[in-house]
Amino acid sequence: MKIFQPNWVHHDEKSIFSIDIHPSGERFATGGQGCDSGRVVIWNMAPVLSEQAEANKSVPRVLCQMDNHLACVNCVRWSGNGLMLASGGDDKLVMIWKKTLSGSGGGIGAFGGGGGKSVEHWRCISTLRGHAGDVLDLAWSPQDRWIASCSVDNTIIVWDAQQFPKIVHVLKGHTGLVKGVTWDPVGKFVASQSDDRSLKVWKTTDWSCFKTITEPFEECGGTTHILRLSWSPDGQYLVSAHAMNGGGPTAQIIERDGWKCDKDFVGHRKAVTCVRFHNSILKRSAPKTNKLQQYCCLAVGARDRSLSIWLTALQRPLVVIHDLFQDSILDLSWSCDGYTLLTCSGDGHIACLQFTAQELGTPLSEEDKNILYQRMYGKNANIDLTAQAEKEMIVENSDFLNVSKSNPLPPTLIPQQPQLGGMRLDDASKAVQPASQPAVAIKSSSSLAAPTPILKQIETKTADGKRRITPMFIPLNDDNGPAGSHATNNIMPSSIEFGSKSSETSTVEIKQRAHEEPTIIPPPTERATGEPTSKLDNRLKKMATAPPQKAEPMTVPTDPQQQQQQQQQLSAPSSTIQPAANQKLMDRTRQPATFPTGKATVIQGHSFKAFGEVRVQIQNNTVKTSYGTLSRVVGVVVTAQRVERKLWETVVGSPIVCFAVGAKYAIVCSQDHTIRMVDIKTGTPVFPVLSLTSPAVLSAFSSNSQLAGVVTESGILRIWSVPEKAVLLSTSCAEIMSGSFVTILHVSDKGMPFIVLSNGSSYSYCRKLDSWMLINSSDPVIRHGLIGNKTNAPVRNIKTYPLSTIQSYGSFSGPKTNSFAELHSASWQTSAAIAFIENQIKICEMIASPAELKYWYSMLGFQLALNGSEEKIRQVLDDLLGASHNSLDPCRTLAGDDADDRSVLGISKQLLMEDVLNHLKTQTKWQRIYTEYLDQLKFLKERDGGGGRDKPLME
């Protein structure tokens, strides 16, 4: 190391307050007092570094002198590209200087070669006026996007370096003189230090105060002219100027990770005035182990006129130089090559320290530096601050580094099953290219496992040439092996899945049109549970010769006959509970020759519906008596030998218009407005014959067969609890029908009715609110929400996913072609999407659908991560913290409502919050919120003993 003081560098024996080396290393600038004004001088670096150059009279020493400031210059700083020099002084001004062609104006030559003329010409291109007091410090941001200035007016002004003299923001919050400012090298923060005994960290995204640190500065006094703090080149450490520890002055080390203040540089006898990190991250081999070390280097100057050099890899200073000047050290600057340090003093002199690579180490190359930045922040050093100002692209939380940088995928409603060899099949025999489309919001259940028929099957071809296989036999026994064995065979993609997902039940519907043989729609397999599928029943072999029926798209039909078919499909699962493993539901109804229009229509011919081995047969107008024509209702059982045995028979004095079968009961509705509830094994009545104001058009059982419901022509809705022989709900659909009629009825196990109208709208009735809840309609927000969260094949599993199933019957089209771009550009989209999702969540709460509630909370997190605001995200997360958050107060107890507030439909709010946070993790701009709320969540889990969950908090 060499130390020398070029005595020819001076300001006419006046104080030099600032010094800065040009990025090229060829020149340096000083700022301070002149004879009667503030002075900025640009010096040649060559005479400082070389004795030969210093002795050579032809080598200029002063390159340019500018005396434009009206008062003392307190700071000079070169821009990162070296094209501009900024100076700030006691005249409240910041001046921006730029080199011009010879003779175009600028400063005057005071010393050195050139016969009293400036060798270089630097012109003030902009004067920045905004401060109300002396400007004490300046700092250019990375990439020279902004420049920050601080003043005795207690503010920091951020100026737009692309559009001088535009002010980007005025940072207010300090209550004392602001004496130092510095930028985070990765462009995330700007830090300031003030006489108010605080250090503040400001976010560059919205210029808000992110962190205020006061503890290390509580004993500090305003004894220094400046407080030049500095940020390490790796961004991990912020070192303040003056701090106190145990009554002694220190330079406080503030770690970026948690903003901890448990380390400092000690040894100076008086207040530290300035610190300056080496511009590069350094490396060298450790003396003993020969292991490669990476570290940062820091110079510290103080009022005690001493200078210390520190390496973060060492516990002690590398060197300490006492009494370097006769006055306080006021500024420090490292050269671009990293081996020269210039420092200046209030006594009007400067000093130069030259180091070697053996002493300091070797600077990391730009490539290695970028690799380090990529590992630490997920971004290289060449940061686009213009874009980063809008999006917080710098990764600080390590959780964000493991998130894929590709487009985040929305959550899926149905758990995904692994595909065979990464392939998907368009039909039963033809493989296509590996699936490359991203996951969609709602995955169709029909794209999951489907049973493979054992006996003869029918093959048809669709309009696009694809083959479609229609099995001809109905599986009734759960002993056919795992469902996953044919998980990729998308047989009958347009088939509908209903009923329970349990391992004990599934539903089958046999549809038949007038004058046509029936086509069998394959039943769903137990995909959700992985339970085995069923064997085929040889009772139906006689149907193997039936001609194929053309596949139909799954839309809400306008044809009333098709609407009635869909109603029968949906009402089928309401007849299922969880009986023995061989119990299944099937119905077979010959449709009427005339199309219904919301009116009760007599069932034509023979019809039956079955549950397990018992089925109920309807034969209208088959018994002629002198009193009138009777209709027969017969209960039969099918034995293992496929022999039908009659269990009971009864007659009804009026034609039957609809009926439904459950595990224990059957409900039979007649044209004369009467309703009969009978036991399916004995035929004995459960209720007396009931009569309503009009005949029933739809009837259904809940999936547990405990509840039965009907809808009449006039829109009256009744739901009864059959075991209790009591009405559960009595209301009217008339207020929502508006000229339409009910086409689908479903009753949930909790007595919640779902109806679909002929106009496509759907509703559910809430007894607590005594009102109909809108499920689907032509409302633009609902249309936008559903179109954005569905696939080509709808999710239709009425027991597990009732909301999605009912909404899948909407017949509302999407936007027209000329407005399709609106789906991707309109500003209303975010508000509409979030409003729709939040309404879905509230519906799920009211209808008690936990699987869908979890999905829509996940979808809410996905939307908020992509397009949400910080205010909305905090609102959602605070709501999920709920009473548990409020109970951080030890005076509160988790009892009563507070305890209930910890879960929704049996799902822990903490679990829902984890899901939302996992989506926020896909966008680095939310990492601060993510870290903040993750810490709160961890605290609550630790306090609650882990919440009963053994798996990690976040996955």
Question: What can you tell me about this protein's structure?
Answer:
Residues 500-509 have a biased composition (Polar residues). This is Protein HIRA. Residues 683-880 form the Protein HIRA-like C-terminal domain. Residues 474-577 are annotated as: Disordered. It is found in: Nucleus. With 955 residues, this protein is an alpha+beta fold. Among the domains are: 2-100 and 116-373, YVTN repeat-like/Quinoprotein amine dehydrogenase (Methylamine Dehydrogenase, Chain H, 7 Propeller), CATH 2.130.10.10; 596-732, Methylamine Dehydrogenase, Chain H (7 Propeller); 773-812 and 827-883 and 901-943, no CATH class. The chain is 16% helix and 32% strand. The protein contains 16 helices and 57 strands. The strands form 15 sheets. A 7-stranded mixed beta sheet has the order 37-36-39-40-41-42-43, with helices on one face. Strands 18, 19, 20, 21 and 22 form a 5-stranded antiparallel beta sheet that branches. A hairpin with a 6-residue loop joins strand 24 (282-285) and strand 25 (292-295). Helix 11 runs antiparallel to helix 12, helix 13 (870-886) packs antiparallel against helix 15 (909-920) and helix 13 packs parallel to helix 16 (927-943). The two termini are 52 Å apart. Residues 104-116, 384-392, 418-458, 470-561, 566-596, 817-825, 886-899 and 947-952 have low confidence and may be disordered.
Write the layout of secondary structure elements.
Blueprint: E1 2-4, E2 16-21, E3 27-33, E4 38-44, H1 46-49, H2 51-55, E5 62-66, E6 73-78, E7 84-89, E8 93-100, E9 121-129, E10 135-140, E11 146-151, E12 155-160, E13 167-172, E14 178-183, E15 189-194, E16 198-203, E17 209-213, E18 230-231, E19 237-239, E20 243-245, E21 248-255, E22 263-266, E23 272-277, E24 282-285, E25 292-295, E26 297-302, E27 307-311, E28 319-321, E29 329-334, E30 340-345, E31 350-354, H3 357-360, E32 362-363, H4 366-377, H5 385-388, E33 457-461, E34 467-471, E35 475-477, E36 507-512, E37 519-520, E38 535-536, H6 560-571, E39 585-590, E40 606-611, E41 614-625, E42 628-638, E43 644-652, E44 656-661, E45 665-670, E46 674-679, E47 690-691, E48 696-701, E49 707-712, E50 716-721, E51 726-732, H7 734-737, E52 742-747, E53 753-757, E54 762-766, E55 771-776, H8 780-787, H9 802-807, H10 822-825, H11 828-847, H12 850-867, H13 870-886, H14 897-900, E56 903-904, E57 907-908, H15 909-920, H16 927-943
Parallel strand pairs: 36-39
Antiparallel strand pairs: 1-31, 2-3, 3-4, 4-5, 6-7, 7-8, 8-9, 10-11, 11-12, 12-13, 14-15, 15-16, 16-17, 18-19, 19-21, 20-21, 21-22, 23-26, 24-25, 24-32, 26-27, 27-28, 29-30, 30-31, 33-34, 35-38, 36-37, 39-40, 40-41, 41-42, 42-43, 44-45, 45-46, 46-47, 48-49, 49-50, 50-51, 52-53, 53-54, 54-55, ...
